[in-house]
Amino acid sequence: MARLSFFSLALLLVLGTLAASQDIGIPDVENGLIEDENNVTCVMVQGTISFTVNYTAKANKTEVVTVTVPEHGAAVTGSCNGTEGEQYIEITWGPVNETSSTRMTFNRTKDTWSLIDFTATVFMGKNFVNATVYGEKLDLVMNYNFSPLEIGVNRSFNCHSHLSAFNVTGSLDGAEYDLPLGSDLTNIQIQAYNEIIGERDFVDSVHCTADNTSDVVPIAVGCALAGLVVIVLIAYLVGRRRRSAAYQSV
Ligand SMILES: *[C@@H]1O[C@H](CO)[C@@H](O)[C@H](O)[C@H]1NC(C)=O
Ligand SMILES: *[C@@H]1O[C@H](CO)[C@@H](O)[C@H](O)[C@H]1NC(C)=O
Ligand SMILES: *[C@@H]1O[C@H](CO)[C@@H](O)[C@H](O)[C@H]1NC(C)=O
Ligand SMILES: *[C@@H]1O[C@H](CO)[C@@H](O)[C@H](O)[C@H]1NC(C)=O
Ligand SMILES: *[C@@H]1O[C@H](CO)[C@@H](O)[C@H](O)[C@H]1NC(C)=O
Ligand SMILES: *[C@@H]1O[C@H](CO)[C@@H](O)[C@H](O)[C@H]1NC(C)=O
Ligand SMILES: *[C@@H]1O[C@H](CO)[C@@H](O)[C@H](O)[C@H]1NC(C)=O
Ligand SMILES: *[C@@H]1O[C@H](CO)[C@@H](O)[C@H](O)[C@H]1NC(C)=O
Ligand SMILES: *[C@@H]1O[C@H](CO)[C@@H](O)[C@H](O)[C@H]1NC(C)=O
How confident is the model at residue 47 (pLDDT cuts 50, 70, 90)? Predict the structure, then answer.
């Protein structure tokens, strides 16, 4: 009896750890989705998208501002482009005449899709009151090393890990912006070229490489617990054999 409960407790621990490493729950699409005329939601994006801008303040020193795309209440536009050409999704936010926006463009090669262009236009409004460039629009081009780069059609890209752009270039009225710029993505989930009719949520996701390495921890814990079970069992069996040997010698 004691052996059984000890064993099942250990097994429960192992199963619990494995379950914790799986994705639980269905996400709500917050940032936006784009639908074609047949009710096929071709592009969906969700997650935290931010841009970091260093600027020169009037006091002649460098300051930094992080602009985050709001996860609720932004306007979303885009194109499914007949599911053949390039698709895009554009998220626009901010007050009238002071809007900022970001756009992701996707391309498809047979049965896979990839992000081919990621840009933004940041209106340097109230967060930039002390900037010498206050009230101007800064155009940004982001370069991310997504891994994997190509995702199967009907599948989404999912990355819990924090991703940083390796290069962000900016321009103001066509002139190159010469202070440091950055961009980050957290908990990002993207899907383009979805063909499943009536599916307004992300389907089978492909995790980024960065997430796979973080799975190592729960798997290691699971293996350690499984090892513990084996050790306890062996100790028990050895102990029982010793005891029965002791009985025989009496
Ligand atoms: C799309 O969905 C709307 C509302 O659910 C419905 O009225 C319309 O008929 C649908 N269109 C097609 C082409 O299925
Ligand atoms: C940009 O801003 C960051 C954060 O404040 C700062 O550490 C860095 O030195 C700034 N870069 C320049 C060139 O001023
Ligand atoms: C700001 O700094 C630059 C170089 O560091 C200098 O040339 C310029 O005169 C300074 N401007 C003011 C207003 O202090
Ligand atoms: C549709 O795709 C083509 C090329 O594949 C591209 O040139 C065009 O701009 C796209 N149209 C829209 C509305 O995105
Ligand atoms: C936006 O800009 C237009 C044209 O410059 C102007 O007529 C309008 O009043 C502005 N709206 C707001 C809310 O500032
Ligand atoms: C988009 O994909 C098509 C083939 O599917 C290819 O010919 C074209 O060069 C790609 N465009 C870009 C910008 O990668
Ligand atoms: C702008 O400068 C003033 C005075 O130096 C300061 O009190 C204020 O916090 C600054 N605002 C921002 C957004 O940096
Ligand atoms: C960033 O991109 C720009 C324009 O494509 C290029 O000139 C620059 O060398 C790149 N910088 C890095 C660090 O890759
Ligand atoms: C995607 O799913 C739709 C609906 O299930 C299916 O018709 C289509 O063939 C699938 N596309 C690919 C490339 O698997």
Answer: very high
